[in-house]
Amino acid sequence: MNKKRCTAIVLAAGSGRRMKSDVAKQYLPLGGRPLIWYALHAIEESSVIDDCILVACQEDILNGYVREEIVERFGFHKVASIVPGGAERYDSVYNALQAIKETGTAGYVFIHDGARPFLTEEILERCLAEVEKTGACVAGMPVKDTIKIADEDCYARQTPDRNTLWQIQTPQVFERVLITQAYEKLMQEKEHLAAAGVKITDDAGAVELLMNRPVKLVEGSYRNIKVTTPEDIAVAEAFLAIS
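The chain above was modelled as a monomer; its predicted structure follows.
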């Protein structure tokens, strides 16, 4: 049986706010290449992924930087289109899903943070195998540290069982129709959810809450870090040095 078409959404529309940099973090140098290169390279070389939607800052799209200095310079032929990001992560994902919906070709959608440079073929293969069975899965790893739930005064209120806790990563992978319906519902109800104090911080949360669907956890990698703060660059450089 032929594999359903797999499209990756790579989110790279963030700023350098937490990185405390004048350069958006996705373009910061890592091992002599822009940070975003690593995720796009993994997708370009993957036998799992058929094509890619790259989400970038509107300004970087309009001035040609993303296409000329990233996509064309490094020969990322799987990047089928570049779409502008939104004010929030869910806006960016929604824009990319609309681009996929217009073609109606993807069977599965792999949503990945462009600031996670250590995406591997093994992670992609594990996610594909699971989404084919369940329709919804996310990469992650069991937490190593004890986690405390704090009250409003920063006193430890509860200590959940560490054996039940996972640190969630990307890619987060879904049947296209399922994740598209979840995000369309999210866009319709986001003001109501915000007023109720409900925060949806990842794609799995949208599927769990709005579609009432369970999402399977799939082993990612402890190296599959998200580069967010300056010290993360140092950690990423160290991983590159030993890879």
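Residues 6-242 form a domain with the Spore Coat Polysaccharide Biosynthesis Protein SpsA; Chain A fold (CATH 3.90.550.10).
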